[in-house]
């Protein structure tokens, strides 16, 4: 089993008893905590029209987190590129990289990050998404290139800056694209695990080296809930289960505190659906997390594991990331 990096995905989760201001302060606290634990990067994800997630202005939050930290890489996991002009994203991330040199990542995806009606309000054209997304990535690369200095349209700031691009996906479509463009590939195993194994296979087998990357770089995002005891971790995970139930029911209310018995909340069919979506969720005490990490890595052999953690109590969320760091350290020393 090869060693792997660990990173953070934060959705800026809004909890029932907290304001959005509190949410952002918790995100900064988590970033500081994981920076001290030597996590590699801290990514924020673009979502819209959801009471439970406050990361809609993703670029603004990246600046907030980067300004409040010193060394950890900060970026998007991701920017939903067809929601935006390529030039605007190039300028925004060029600004971020100029403010925080060597610390900014630009992860991009093609999904809307919201429902159909809101996607329409964002100005997306679903008929051209599959052609638009690859074209926009190439546009970003052009805007960031020094060779674009003679063009009539330039990204200032942005031009000539080393801002690494990452392709995000929740199906096999983006695996083909990441392989073709020779870019790092991050799969959304935290909500769409069904095609992760096949996506990684496609990416690795068809990877073409690029100026940014000479060999495949595989990243998997999973949900993680760790605690001092297995019993506590499983109770804490009921916040995550309730969040997925809300998605199934199209109820976007803020995250709920943990409960003693999920059977009072979900139906058998809903339970089956949630557990399928959370197939690779890592829940337990440190010993269990170590075993689950080992099994996961033996199966997927990733270069980096990105951990998303829906834990209601902020201090317990911080501790969960600490346990994951301890578990990874233990495995690397074994």
TrEMBL record:
InterPro entries: Bact_Lucif_Oxidored, CmoO-like, Luciferase-like_dom, Luciferase-like_sf. It comes from the Bacteria. Pfam families: Bac_luciferase. Residues 22-113, 153-298 form the Luciferase-like domain. GO terms for cellular component: cytosol. GO terms for molecular function: oxidoreductase activity, acting on paired donors, with incorporation or reduction of molecular oxygen. To bacterial alkanal monooxygenase alpha and beta chains. This is Luciferase-like monooxygenase.
């Amino acid at each position: 089993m090869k060693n792997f990096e660990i990173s953070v995905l934060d959705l800026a989760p809004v909890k029932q008893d907290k304001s959005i201001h509190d949410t952002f302060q918790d995100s900064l606290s988590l970033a500081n905590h994981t920076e001290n634990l030597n996590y590699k990067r801290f990514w924020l994800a673009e979502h819209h029209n959801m009471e439970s997630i406050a990361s809609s202005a993703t670029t603004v939050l990246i600046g907030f987190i980067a300004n409040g930290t010193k060394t950890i890489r900060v970026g998007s996991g991701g920017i939903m590129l067809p929601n935006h002009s390529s030039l605007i994203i190039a300028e925004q991330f060029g600004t971020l990289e100029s403010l925080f040199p060597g610390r900014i990542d630009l992860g991009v995806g093609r999904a809307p990050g919201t429902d159909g009606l809101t996607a329409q309000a964002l100005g997306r054209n679903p008929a051209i998404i599959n052609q638009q997304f690859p074209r926009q990535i190439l546009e970003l690369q052009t805007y960031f290139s020094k060779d674009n200095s003679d063009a009539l349209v330039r990204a200032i700031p942005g031009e000539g800056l080393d801002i690494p691009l990452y392709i995000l996906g929740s199906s096999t479509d983006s695996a083909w694209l990441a392989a073709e463009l020779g870019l790092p590939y991050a799969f959304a195993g935290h909500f769409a695990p069904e095609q992760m194994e096949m996506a990684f296979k496609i990416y690795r087998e068809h990877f073409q080296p690029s100026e940014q990357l000479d060999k495949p770089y595989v990243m998997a995002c999973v949900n993680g809930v760790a605690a001092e005891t297995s019993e506590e971790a499983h109770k804490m995970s009921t916040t995550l289960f309730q969040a997925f139930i809300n998605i199934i029911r199209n109820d976007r209310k803020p995250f709920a505190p943990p409960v003693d018995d999920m059977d009072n909340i979900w139906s058998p069919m809903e339970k089956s659906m949630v557990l399928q979506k959370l197939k690779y969720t890592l829940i337990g005490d440190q010993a269990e997390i170590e075993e689950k990490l080992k099994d996961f890595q033996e199966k997927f052999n990733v270069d980096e594991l990105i951990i998303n953690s829906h834990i209601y109590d902020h201090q317990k969320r911080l501790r969960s990331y600490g346990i994951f760091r301890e578990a990874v350290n233990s495995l690397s020393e074994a």
